[in-house]
Amino acid sequence: MLHYCEMMGTTLRSLAGRHCLVAVNFARTPVAVLNPRCYQRHNNQSRRTCIDIAAVKGDRPSTSGRSAAAEPRPRLAKVLAACGVASRRACEELIAEGRVRVNGRVVSEQGTTIDPSVDQVDILQQPTSISSTASGHHVGGSSRATAAGTEKQQQQQQEGGGKGASIPLGWRRIRVSFFQEAGSLYYFAVNKPKGYICSSADVNGRKLAVELLSPWLDQWKRTNKDKNRQPPRFFTVGRLDVASSGLLFITNDGQWANRVIHPSSGVTKEYVVGLDKDASRPQLRALAAGTEVAGTFVSPLEVEVLGDARRLRIVVSEGKKHEVRELVKAAGLELVSLKRVRIGGFRLPRDLGLGGYRELKPSELRAITDLAVQEAASASGETRQAIQRQAEAQRAAAAAASVPRALRGLGEEVLERLRKARE
To answer: Does 240 share its domain with 288?
Structure first.
């Protein structure tokens, strides 16, 4: 019987007819021969044996079953962000400011890794307003304090000498042991209404797009009874301005979000624009010619008139702030409505009402950055109908192929009666 175990690019195979275990690489070149007795003793404990590198070099089986190299330690900033402390960038700033401790020691180096199941992590809470008479610094808003100054202010507060502090300074323990669970990744498609901003917080009290997921978060909290476990921290993928509506992605996966919005991915966005009056041909040509936005010249990939000349379909790829609005304005047109209907290969579902959301399927996630799917999804109305007709013809051909050869000459009505009779 052959036993396989893949680890670190090495395949372990038990050779038939021999009483030894040989480690071979993908070229099937022998690397090491393990002691048969060690293998026999370890195999009695588990039929599926996994041996680490030390076991191969030292002729002994692994006691842990997995090597340290096979499970790398996560970065501290990633763990803090996954546990809901702040965004990844904000967590990196906390570390740089010396406001994070690991096992009682202040950590200020980026790239520090930890073991969430063992290490204890604390953060120094940020005060909203602190005036230090000793140092003359004011902490709050965009101002920052060094680690030494912050600790000095903390000591002054504990001694009663600090003034103007609205929130007491102190270290707070972060339950990083929940990192693997709290780090679960979620992806949502949202039909954003007007009046919602794409931000994680707003001092002016405006409505946030991430708040549209409040029902889902409430259900998550009801399902997870542990009060110490932090819910996922969501953010929007890119932006859709407050006066616009339509498709918006919300997730807690920063790497995927960066891949979608980065220009190198080639992900395009499609909008439906409403105008105050019909667009003339010179205005349409000016719109297609492009304009300068934020110091960069941009032009739409496609411009199409939908029905009357007051509704346009515009496809862009640059992703500049207010790009579509600036293009319309430069053409001498006045925009009255703007709705995003597609990102990459994913089109806003027609059954997703305004303010609604639904979780994305794995196939839909792949379609977003799949350029071939995107090309089909971004086709104009006539081309899209041709693609649909071709797909229907392929389905009809597949259905005809499933009909027995003796019945293929019969008409569709006869075949339909036969199908109903069989049912």
So the answer is: no
Q: Which amino acid is at 140?
A: G
Residues 81 and 54 grouped into a single domain: no
Indicate whether 226 pLDDT > 80: no
Residue 223 is predicted with a pLDDT of 86
**Within this chain, do residues 356 and 258 fall inside the same structural domain, yes or no?**
yes
Q: Which residue has the tokens 């990102």?
A: 343
Tell me the per-residue pLDDT of 296-343, one tens digit each, with 9 for 90 and over.
899 999 999 998 889 999 999 887 889 999 999 999 999 999 999 999
122 and 259 in a single domain? The answer is no
In angstroms, the Cα distances linking 392 to 49, 317, 383, 403 are: 50, 30, 14, 17
Instruction: Give dist(CA 413, CA 400) in Å, integer.
Output: 14
The answer to whether residues 170 and 83 belong to one domain is yes
My answer on whether 235 and 289 are in the same domain is no
pTM over 0.85: no
- Distance, in Å, from the CA atom of 369 to the CA atom of 385, rounded to the nearest integer, reads 22
State both tokens at 381. Answer: 């109305």
Question: 3-state secondary structure string, 286-328?
Answer: HHHHCEEECCEEECCCEEEECCCCCEEEEEECCCCCCHHHHHH
Asked if residue 339 and residue 277 are part of one domain, the reply reads yes
Measure CA 401 to chain center.
42
Closest CA to 322 of 418, 238, 401, 206: 238
Residue 332 neighbours by CB under 8 Å, 6+ apart: 283, 286
Share of the chain above pLDDT 70, in %: 58
Structural domain total, the chain: 5
Query: 385 in a domain, yes or no?
Result: no
Of 188 and 125, the structure prediction assigns the larger pLDDT to 188
> For residue 402, what are the domain limits?
391-423
Q: Report which of 152, 155, 126, 154 is spatially closest to residue 141, judged by C-alpha positions.
A: 126
Helix H or strand E segment including 377: helix 371-377
Among candidate residues 378, 360, 369, the one with its CA nearest the CA of residue 264: 369
Catalytic residue (one of 115, 119, 122, 241): 241
**Domain harbouring 230, CATH code:** 3.30.70.580
276 is catalytic: no
Percent of the chain with pLDDT over 90: 30
In a domain, 63, yes or no: no
* Residue 381 within a domain: no
